[in-house]
Amino acid sequence: MSRLGHFGGLGHFSYLAVLLGCLVATAPLEILLRTRVYARPRRLLLSVAPVLVVFVGWDLYAIARGHWAFDPRRTTGVLLPGGLPLDEVLFFVVVPVCAVLALEAVRAVTGWQAGDERAGAEQVDGEQVDGERAGDRPADGARGPG
Amino acid sequence: MSYTALAVVGVVVSVLLDLRILRTRLLTRRLFWTAYAIIVFFQLVTNGILTGFDIVVYDPDAIAGPRLVFAPVEDLLFGFALVTQTLVWWVWWGLRHGNE
């Protein structure tokens, strides 16, 4: 019996349910505050990937050393090499995505800068990002320094 | 290394990534700390569920001992490292690719 008792009969989907809750709770930010996080999938992928590598490495070490363990009754049971549950890998995707959504939500509401606003003029190697065009970016007026 | 030692290393690496390696200096901005204050509240909620329901369990020998909402205090440092590194990369890629 855990400190909080049983987790509502979700069984193997307990961990996934927590992650799904995070995604559902933050999704409205993308629509209501136009955070444009999911709308920039390339940048999002490039931001999550290095963090995923580092923290999966940390996790594998921690599992190998027995720092923590996962209840097989409350996780999917899908284990990747090193005994890493699939649930845990998804954690390292979901939490970073939610964190970026939070940052962009605060930026949208306050107009405070993150330091990347001046980047508009700095195209690297003339590289253009697919998708969005200037006219498709209604949030810009509320965000940049002007 | 214990979880405690690794968690401290994680925070130091995150700070160095922001201030020295990528030089995004996000940690100097109120935008970051305001967002982090919101994030850390929800981290305590979700982490409290994961640890309170024993979805994740910790070896008492790997942690210092004190707990916050069921989770070892080390999780706060772990979460700070995870969130900070993500946001630093997000801003860094934004700088490189015209905020896109």
TrEMBL record, chain B:
Pathway: Carotenoid biosynthesis. Keywords: Carotenoid biosynthesis, Isomerase, Membrane, Transmembrane, Transmembrane helix. It is found in: Membrane. Its main location: membrane. Pfam families: Lycopene_cyc (PF18916). One of its GO terms (cellular component) is membrane. This is Lycopene cyclase. It comes from Parafrankia soli.
